[in-house]
Amino acid sequence: MATLFIADVNLVLHVVILVMLFVGLGLKFKKKMFLHGTTMLIALVLHVVSFGLMMLPSFVSLRILFPYRNNIFSLIMLVHVILGVLTLILAAWLIVRWHLQRSIKSCTRRKKVMLLVFAIWIITLLLGILVYLSLYTTLVPWVYSEA
After folding, report:
1. Rounded to an integer, what distance in angstroms lies between the CA atom of residue 138 and that of residue 147?
2. Is 99 helix (H, G, I), strand (E, B) or coil?
């Protein structure tokens, strides 16, 4: 039961992060760049906390991939892990380069990277939701099978 509770907390946290990403995108379109950057920073911090407290321990335990080899679930999980780590690294790099500056001159040069990170982050979150649904619900039984 504790595992399900942790998974539920992680899912809620990542739905909050997903909302924050879209709020941050809206702030960018409204030219509120400092608030955009701050929102992205908070989303990244939440992601790092989730990664460190919930996802990394699951991955390190190796229970995530090895018992489910050779099925669609393993492939989805592997892509989720790879994209998640890539997102974490790239988002952290962008935030460090930003330095909470009020000037957007340095940010405009990284616009393509920001869009790429945003897209990868959304894909990763959606794959994570699919993993959650396949492990803890009966909504997508075709994804997870202990074959």
Report:
1. 17
2. coil
